[in-house]
Design a protein that fits this description.
A hairpin with a 4-residue loop joins strand 17 and strand 18. The chain is of the alpha+beta class. The protein has 4 domains: 86 residues, 2-Layer Sandwich (Uridine Diphospho-n-acetylenolpyruvylglucosamine Reductase, domain 2); 119 residues, Uridine Diphospho-n-acetylenolpyruvylglucosamine Reductase, domain 3; 116 residues, Alpha-Beta Plaits, CATH 3.30.70.2190; 104 residues, Alpha-Beta Plaits, CATH 3.30.70.2740. The chain has 15 helices and 18 strands. It binds flavin-adenine dinucleotide. Flavin-adenine dinucleotide binds next to strand 3, helix 5, strand 10 and helix 11. The site of flavin-adenine dinucleotide has 37 residues, from strand 3, helix 5, strand 10 and helix 11.
Length: 459
């Protein structure tokens, strides 16, 4: 509970219009893309670093939890205020402060929506490479805090590779700057990298210096369908083994092909066991050779149909199907849970077989969606959250998927983070000593444990 005197102090910092305190209003900012939902005691909408710093200082003085929030699209429980406190909604800090094409950089505020940034950069002939499938709504601040990936991260790397520096409000309310506008720095500990993927537990980003990239002159998009999911998964490592790193190499199984097709009607092959959506980019004259090599690898792996998109509209349709498929599963079952285990790419066939086996054993539909080139899988478990027995089965099935990935040399999360969802599995991946070290870093930054308590490390 926040006292009325404290509420008045919050209002004096950000203005009374920028504080919500009614339970139902706060509830609107207490969810994310998992199934959990709680109500904070207050939601504040700061518009400047100074306001963020003052709110944090106040919260630290009164030992109130602070949950930074972008668009709330995270898939790990990261923005759910399960211990109450203040939700710090950063979406009004959404300006592009600087675009510098000569140094390939931009400075942005954390609440900027990823797709809006891409649109602003396009007239300059530039783009920002990390492209989570949620890019139409998710924010750059949320992307940094989760180290977001996306389809084209196979060739160009995840968010971590694109963040040069940060302005951060620490849990004490002090403001620090990490990194710089320079692409390379080698000065002391890399605090920028420490902040990336910290899921809101170490500091609040208020400015972000990012690298931007010139748009290539050409790209080719291919849709490859297979009768056996093993053939599709084997193709993934074989393409990279043949010396080609495509921009994207995405996979969807039959269940998800049909969900996507029901939703978008773009003409996906409903009877295929799996499809790969592959894109290459570069100089115009280099692309036909790459497409030919990829076609050869697909043929070796029994591809049934290999289609190269013939128009920009066709490319857009294919990506529409891919980017909206997670929401499209609502047509099949009312609830879904999505993991993001990652395995070395040549272990894709093994993990996919294991997921199919788990799905059959638990009698639960599990769709296989993957940034396959990165070995990053999104098994989508479909169920009904009102059925408590089914929910229990989902927890067991997901635990088994996580364990299987680790046994294959993988990790619990390729891009969605730990939050609260994967907390129970953390010690399967890390030793007690490593977890203690991480907790020590958290204590150093946040001795009063006010920033997103209970997340990532469970403290
Ligand atoms: C349909 C769908 C598709 C998705 N596809 C992808 C994908 O392809 N790749 C991928 O990586 N993820 C994907 N995601 C997950 C999600 O979109 C990403 O994790 C995204 O980066 C979250 O951004 P957000 O603005 O919604 O952050 P939020 O969900 O609001 O917050 C995420 C975390 O960041 C912290 N945070 C937010 N802003 C700040 C800040 N300024 N300072 C410090 N901490 C902060 C929060 O406390 C929280 O812990 C998908 C999600 C959905 C629902």
């Amino acid at each position: 509970m926040i006292s009325s005197a404290l509420m008045e102090e919050l209002k004096s910092i950000v203005g009374s219009k920028n504080v919500l305190s009614k339970k139902d209003e706060c509830f609107d900012y207490g969810y994310d893309a998992t199934l959990t939902e709680y109500s904070a005691d207050a939601v504040v909408f700061p518009t400047s670093t100074e306001e963020v710093a003052q709110v944090i200082k106040l919260a630290n003085k009164h030992l109130l939890p602070v949950i930074s929030r972008g668009a709330g699209t995270n898939l790990s429980g990261g923005t759910v205020p399960h211990k109450g406190g203040i939700v710090l909604n950063l979406t009004r800090m959404n300006r592009v402060l600087e675009i510098d094409t000569q140094n390939n950089l931009a400075v942005v505020e954390p609440g900027l929506v990823n797709a809006d940034f891409q649109e602003i950069l396009a007239p300059y002939g530039y783009y920002y490479s990390p492209d989570p499938a949620s890019m139409k709504v998710c924010t750059i601040g949320g992307n940094v805090a989760e180290n977001a990936g996306g389809p084209r991260c196979l060739k160009y790397g995840v968010t971590r590779e694109y963040i040069r520096g940060l302005e951060v409000v620490l849990p004490s309310g002090e403001v620090i700057v990490t990194g710089s506008k320079n692409k390379f720095t080698n000065d002391g500990y890399d605090l920028t990298k420490l902040m990336i993927a910290s899921e809101g537990i170490l500091g609040v980003f208020t400015k972000i210096i990012v690298s931007i990239t010139p748009i290539w002159e050409a790209k080719k998009t291919m849709l490859c369908s297979f009768d056996r999911i093993e053939d599709a998964s084997n193709t993934v490592a074989d393409i990279v083994g043949a010396g080609i790193v495509p921009t994207t190499l995405e996979m969807m199984d039959n269940l998800l092909i049909n969900c996507a097709e029901d939703h978008t009607k773009v003409g996906l092959p409903r009877d295929a066991a799996a499809i790969l959506l592959i894109e290459v980019d570069g100089y115009k004259e280099d692309l036909p050779g790459q497409v030919e090599t990829i076609h050869g690898v697909c043929k070796k792996n029994n591809v049934r149909e290999f289609k190269v998109a013939q128009s920009a509209a066709e490319v857009d349709q294919l990506w529409l199907a891919r980017r909206t498929v997670i929401g499209a599963v609502a047509r099949k079952r009312p609830s879904y849970s999505l993991q993001d285990v990652t395995v070395p790419r040549n272990k894709m066939p093994a993990i996919v077989n294991k997921i199919v086996e788990i799905s059959q054993r638990y009698d639960l539909p599990i769709g296989v969606l993957a940034h396959a080139g990165d070995g990053n899988l999104h098994p989508l478990v479909l169920f009904d959250e009102r059925d408590k027995i089914e929910v229990e089965k989902v927890h067991h099935a997901e635990g088994e998927i996580c364990k299987a990935a680790l046994e294959l040399g993988g990790t619990l999360s390729g891009e969605h983070g730990i939050g609260t969802l994967k907390l129970p599995y953390l010690e399967w991946e890390f030793s007690k000593e490593a977890i203690e070290l991480m907790k020590g870093i958290k204590r150093l930054f946040d001795p009063n444990n006010i920033l997103n308590p209970g997340k990532v490390l469970g403290v």
